[in-house]
């Protein structure tokens, strides 16, 4: 444990300087933390599943043997600095950790954080041990920037401000652009901007904040189009009493209607499509700031006043219940807006004398002053579960102290995107410690996520973490001083600390595990209040729960942030290449904790590996099913289970929680109203709800026929009628008996068949495409389409004409296929005609059309002649051999009885991520986007999505 050496010691002549005395937690004197691990060299080659191209390659990288290949790939590709192929490129995790930890240690040493050089060295070793053993991780900007020649930006979360002037609005555009350019995101509250119902000083009518949102949205879209992310990370907030609130609420729902209209007219409005740029407000999350007064008006069915931004007077009223329903309906339609509970947020504000909290970062976990930022770090909770299934309370608390010390040091050397953000952050020193793997910890210890026991454990851990963090903050204040804004806000800060401690006193323990943690939390809060009353606090904020997308993969976490387990089986990459599926290791541990014998555990694990769920697993008692409930799948956690878990931990967090509550497609507007209302009653700070498939898909559509102009030109008057002989095409019918082949396929989870008949002397003569259930509209349309194509082929229309017209046509279903030659299809029609081209067209014609087999593409990349590999392009064969990677995966799967083969039957799509594996096992399509970098399906992470394949996120750092 660390302890402080104060100025009184110096006055007593002990000769010791003011600073932290650092005791060892995990390390051993005389042994460097790197030497305690086994290290190995690995080759990292990351490919795009869509076309087989190599996204990233670095061979001979050095990582601990205990790290998964997935974590290795993500760290090597995202966090290693230096130009590829040069001696300056980092190649070892040791170099990365030395670069980052070295900067923290030297800055702490130079600024008086440590009592001696020996303490600084111990701090350095403890920090490195924690990082290389995956006990915690800093947020991504730290790994990107610290210790490099770049600006030392350490913060991932930003909040901006905008006033009711054109200069301020233009500054907002500029500052947001700078933050986006750096790969981060920002939030802003637009409520200071006067409404469209108010006058300008010149006498004209104001545009209103929604109008200015268009410009910011266009700016964000332009900047992101030149970068690497699919969408900007951006939050826009408006207060519920703003006169333009109804327009704001309907903003994105109306745009969804526009998307449908454009789609039905044949425009390309798919994500990234050429016509989607005409749709507005797609680069931001929208949230309404609701007050207690408004929610009480909803409760009583009263009217609610809308206030002028210029005079503060009420200039209109709305029916509160009607407006609340409009919010719920808009969110039901398009997932926006979310709600932020203003009075709850500001009741827990440690610095109210310096300004209200009016906005949040894009994922809603960071809520503090305008023009500020927060750097994050997350603890891997599962690392503190001992072999005896007890939680190591002492080491968890001591690691929390270590992390808070390091995070505060980082503010000392950090750079910021704007001077205003730098000034506020240095003055209030906001930190955001959090955790990951909560869901895995609960399952491993036999606690259902949606249960009083699960919530008790989560609440106790969160209370211990924040109490310890603020205790260390108070100790740091005694060494290097409290934050600059503390004196002005001392009473408020102390009040909030007492509120946290009182919430801890209200914790109701259920089992021995949470009772032990809660006892330690109580001691931490008592010490926090005692030391803080004397020293003040070094940080205005200490904790929150972030999505932990990329860093969750870096730490090999099964679950991210506060989330439950995503699925019971997951996809694992192998060090030597290839991949396999495994049953989450928390499951056998949970079964043993629930009292099952080894033979029963083995049978249940094998059943889960085969089916992906526990329903009807042999010997598993139904009352234990809930322990294995997941975010998705056959048994999924009910929406209120997520809300109640958030409520269990919220009183113990300085900030808020990044989490979207997912509800099934059949959820109603009333369900949304209930969830949003309960979020307020249960004391949450922010809440977003997402209904499966609420975003517009891309159903089958046809574009307008071409050649209308040519048809019109024939109507011109001729001087004399002229008889023209027309050579009509002759239909060449197929014989009664003809060769044919059938190919089964899967595109974006939709399965179908192609049956192609040929003339005896070769040449395609008919095609029948089956998709959808017999008797359905889709099946009927496909049958009619097949007949039309077949008749045209028999009349002599060349196949290459159809290939040219129908490849690259976009509509849903689209995405990954199970065809090794066509990894990604824009639509079912795109896939079908690419497959027909590969099967029936010669190489020269296919090459001109850009349709090549996987082997031909590999030859092309290698500089060989693809024509040598084009002698025969085969369709699927029942006896198709496994690739070396698949053979290795199958061998490893047999060695582990808890694991199943990577591909169970020919013709089924081979998964590349846990999301795709879950779809394959349980027969449904996850409502998640494809990664733009590697083509795999992403998985939910907090309020955004993270890619398990390459670590990319959809907007959160």
UniProtKB/TrEMBL annotation:
It holds the Pfam family Ribonuc_red_2_N. Residues 44-134 form the Ribonucleotide reductase class II vitamin B12-dependent N-terminal domain. Residues 155-690 form the Ribonucleotide reductase large subunit C-terminal domain. CDD domains: RNR_II_dimer. Its cofactor is adenosylcob(III)alamin. Residues 700-720, 880-911 are annotated as: Disordered. Residues 887-907 have a biased composition (Basic and acidic residues). Keywords: Cobalamin, Cobalt, Disulfide bond, DNA synthesis, Nucleotide-binding, Oxidoreductase. InterPro entries: RdRp_reductase_class-2, RNR_2_N, RNR_lg_C, RNR_NrdJ/NrdZ, TSCPD_dom. Its EC number is 1.17.4.1. It catalyses: a 2'-deoxyribonucleoside 5'-diphosphate + [thioredoxin]-disulfide + H2O = a ribonucleoside 5'-diphosphate + [thioredoxin]-dithiol. Residues 736-839 form the TSCPD domain. One of its GO terms (molecular function) is ribonucleoside-diphosphate reductase activity, thioredoxin disulfide as acceptor. Catalyzes the reduction of ribonucleotides to deoxyribonucleotides. May function to provide a pool of deoxyribonucleotide precursors for DNA repair during oxygen limitation and/or for immediate growth after restoration of oxygen. Belongs to the ribonucleoside diphosphate reductase class-2 family. This is Vitamin B12-dependent ribonucleotide reductase.
């Amino acid at each position: 444990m660390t302890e402080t050496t104060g100025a009184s010691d110096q006055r007593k002549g002990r000769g010791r300087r003011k600073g932290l005395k650092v005791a060892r937690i995990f390390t051993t004197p005389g042994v460097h933390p790197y030497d305690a691990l086994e290290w190995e060299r690995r080759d990292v080659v990351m490919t795009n599943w869509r076309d087989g191209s190599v996204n990233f390659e670095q061979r001979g990288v050095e990582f601990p043997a205990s790290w998964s290949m997935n974590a290795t790939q993500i760290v090597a590709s995202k966090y290693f600095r230096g130009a590829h192929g040069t001696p300056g490129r980092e190649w070892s995790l040791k170099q990365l950790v030395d670069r980052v930890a070295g900067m923290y240690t030297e800055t702490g040493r130079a600024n008086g954080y440590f009592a001696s050089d020996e303490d600084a060295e111990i701090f350095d070793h403890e920090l490195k041990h924690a990082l290389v053993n995956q006990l915690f991780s800093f947020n991504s900007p730290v790994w990107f920037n610290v210790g490099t020649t770049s600006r030392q930006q350490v913060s991932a979360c930003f909040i901006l401000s905008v006033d009711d002037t054109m200069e301020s609005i233009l500054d907002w555009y500029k500052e947001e652009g700078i933050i986006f350019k750096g790969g981060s995101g920002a939030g802003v509250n637009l409520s200071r901007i006067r409404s469209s119902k108010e006058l300008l000083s010149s006498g004209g009518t104001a545009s209103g904040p929604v109008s200015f949102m268009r410009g910011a949205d266009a700016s964000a879209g332009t900047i992101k189009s030149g970068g690497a992310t699919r969408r900007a990370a951006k939050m826009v907030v408006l207060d519920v009493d703003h006169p333009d609130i109804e327009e704001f609420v309907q903003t994105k729902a109306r745009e969804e209607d526009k998307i449908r209209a454009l789609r039905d007219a044949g425009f390309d409005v798919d994500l990234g499509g050429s016509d989607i740029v005409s749709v507005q407000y797609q680069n931001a999350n929208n949230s309404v700031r609701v007050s207690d007064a408004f929610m009480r008006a909803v409760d009583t069915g009263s009217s609610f006043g809308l206030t002028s931004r210029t005079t503060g007077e009420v200039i209109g009223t709305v029916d509160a219940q009607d407006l609340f329903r409009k919010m719920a309906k808009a969110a039901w339609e398009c997932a926006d807006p979310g709600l932020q509970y203003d009075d709850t947020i500001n009741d827990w504000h440690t610095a109210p004398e310096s300004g209200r909290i009016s906005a949040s970062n894009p994922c809603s976990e960071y809520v503090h002053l305008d023009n500020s930022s927060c750097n994050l770090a997350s603890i891997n909770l599962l690392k503190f579960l001992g072999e005896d299934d007890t939680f190591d309370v002492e080491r968890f608390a001591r690691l929390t102290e270590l992390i808070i010390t390091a995070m505060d040091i980082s503010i000392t050397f950090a750079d910021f995107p704007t001077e205003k953000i730098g000034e506020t952050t240095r003055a209030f020193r906001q930190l955001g410690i959090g955790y990951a793997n909560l869901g895995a910890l609960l399952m491993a210890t036999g606690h259902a996520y949606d249960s009083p026991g699960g919530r008790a454990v989560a609440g106790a851990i969160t209370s211990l973490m924040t109490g310890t963090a603020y205790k260390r903050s108070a100790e740091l204040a005694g060494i290097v001083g409290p934050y600059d804004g503390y004196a002005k806000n001392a009473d408020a800060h102390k009040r909030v600390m007492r509120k946290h401690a009182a919430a801890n006193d209200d914790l109701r323990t259920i089992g021995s595990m949470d009772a032990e943690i809660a006892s330690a939390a109580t001691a931490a809060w008592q010490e926090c209040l005692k030391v803080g009353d004397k020293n003040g606090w070094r940080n205005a904020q200490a904790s929150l729960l972030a999505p932990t997308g990329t860093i969750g993969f870096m730490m090999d976490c099964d679950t991210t942030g506060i989330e439950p387990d995503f699925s019971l089986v997951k996809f694992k990459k192998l060090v030597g290449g290839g991949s396999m599926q495994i049953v989450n290791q928390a499951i056998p541990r949970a079964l043993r904790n629930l009292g099952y014998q080894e033979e029963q555990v083995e049978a249940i694990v094998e059943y889960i590996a085969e089916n992906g769920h526990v329903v009807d697993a042999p010997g598993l008692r139904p009352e234990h099913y809930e322990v294995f409930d997941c975010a998705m799948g056959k048994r999924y956690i009910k929406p209120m289970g997520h809300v109640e878990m958030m409520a269990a931990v919220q009183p113990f967090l300085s900030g808020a929680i990044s989490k979207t509550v997912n509800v099934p497609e059949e959820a109603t507007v009333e369900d949304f109203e209930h969830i949003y209302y309960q979020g307020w009653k249960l004391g949450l700070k922010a809440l977003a709800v997402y209904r499966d498939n609420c975003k517009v898909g891309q159903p089958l559509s046809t574009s307008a026929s071409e050649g209308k102009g040519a048809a019109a030109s024939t109507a011109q008057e001729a001087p004399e009628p002229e008889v023209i002989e027309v050579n009509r095409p002759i239909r060449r019918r197929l014989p009664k008996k003809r060769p044919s082949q059938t190919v089964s396929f899967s595109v974006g989870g939709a399965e179908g068949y192609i049956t192609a008949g040929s003339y005896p002397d070769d040449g395609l003569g008919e095609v029948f495409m089956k998709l959808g259930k017999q008797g359905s509209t889709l099946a009927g349309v496909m049958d009619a389409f097949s007949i039309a194509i077949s008749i045209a082929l028999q009349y002599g229309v060349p196949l290459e004409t159809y290939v040219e017209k129908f490849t690259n046509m976009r509509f849903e279903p689209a995405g990954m296929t199970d065809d090794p030659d066509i990894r990604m299809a824009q639509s079912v029609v795109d896939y079908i005609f690419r497959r027909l081209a590969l099967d029936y067209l010669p190489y020269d014609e296919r090459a001109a059309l850009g349709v090549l087999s996987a082997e031909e593409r590999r030859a092309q990349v290698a500089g060989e002649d693809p024509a040598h590999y084009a002698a025969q392009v085969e369709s699927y064969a029942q006896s198709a051999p496994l690739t070396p990677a698949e053979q290795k995966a199958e061998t490893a799967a047999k060695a582990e009885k808890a694991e199943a083969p990577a591909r169970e039957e020919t013709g089924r799509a081979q998964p590349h991520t846990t999301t795709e594996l879950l779809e394959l096992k349980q027969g449904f399509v996850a409502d998640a986007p494809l990664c733009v970098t590697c083509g795999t399906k992403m998985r939910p992470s907090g309020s955004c999505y993270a890619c398990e394949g390459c670590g990319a996120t959809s907007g959160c750092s």
